[in-house]
Amino acid sequence: MLKNVTIRLYTEPDVVWWIENMGRDYYTINAIDQAALVLQLRALGNTKAQLITTTGKGFRPPRTRNPHSWTIVDEPGLADWIVNSLQP
């Protein structure tokens, strides 16, 4: 069950970009669902559930803005988190 799983979610809920470029709002992007999942897991006792939100990081080549891109992830921070999560 997920209540015992170490989990980290990333999102960049840049709602202004989503409205202006994709015609979407908070209810049509997954940021709300990710926040709800982390909140529910914490309510179940999962102290290892994290939600990482970013601002101004999502880009795809050639520097095309897209907050849904994996460039929102801080790669060294994620690598450290993975290593630490695998240790007992």
Characterization of the model:
This protein is an alpha+beta fold. It has one domain (2-86). Helices cover 38% and strands 16% of the residues. The protein has helices spanning 15-22, 31-43, 75-86; strands at residues 7-11, 49-53, 59-60, 64-65. It has a two-stranded parallel sheet. A two-stranded antiparallel sheet has the order 3-4. Strand 3 (59-60) and strand 4 form a beta hairpin. The two termini are 18 Å apart.
The strands making up the biggest β-sheet line up spatially as 1-2
Query: Which term fits the overall shape?
Result: flat
Q: What Rg, in angstroms, do the CA atoms define?
A: 15 Å
What's the pLDDT, averaged over the residues? Answer: 91
pLDDT below 50 for ≥5 consecutive residues: which ranges?
none
Describe the sheet with the most strands.
Answer: 2 strands, parallel
